[in-house]
Amino acid sequence: MGVLQDSNLKVEADAYLLEQVLINLVLNAMEACENTPNPKVKVYAVKKFDGQVIISVTDNGPGIPEEIKDQIFIPFFTTKKEGSGIGLSLSKQIMTLHGGKIQVNSMENKGTLISLIFKENTASTKTSIL
């Protein structure tokens, strides 16, 4: 698994809730890669010139099929035998509460990139969660 690129990045957020989002995204990525040869899950963060902080989780799993991409944030929607379908829905709600958003880019048989995007006003030197 990869590491954060810049340990000085800070966002103003509820550390516990953001931790829950990251745990969910990393576990999803790891599960997606279970049957992938040479599985890779990376977590990294960057600060853009406009002040946005973006935390991303990537994997080289099978990707999200196009026909279900619009459904993955619907509560209780799941493709897993043991899944509850609340992880991504809850993650999206948590990001909305923090004035941010969650963005998904996925290509079948290539992998998935999920980005947590924090607006400039939540990027801060006050509260560090990283």
UniProtKB/TrEMBL annotation:
InterPro entries: HATPase_C_sf (IPR036890), HATPase_dom (IPR003594), His_kinase_dom (IPR005467), Sig_transdc_His_kin-like_C (IPR004358). The keyword ATP-binding applies. Pfam families: HATPase_c. The keyword Iron-sulfur does not apply. Its EC number is 2.7.13.3. It catalyses: ATP + protein L-histidine = ADP + protein N-phospho-L-histidine. PROSITE patterns: HIS_KIN. One of its GO terms (molecular function) is protein histidine kinase activity. Residues 1-122 form the Histidine kinase domain. GO terms for biological process: phosphorelay signal transduction system. Keywords: ATP-binding, Kinase, Nucleotide-binding, Transferase, Two-component regulatory system. SMART domains: HATPase_c. It is an enzyme of class 2 (transferase). SUPFAM superfamilies: ATPase domain of HSP90 chaperone/DNA topoisomerase II/histidine kinase. This is histidine kinase. It comes from Salegentibacter salinarum.
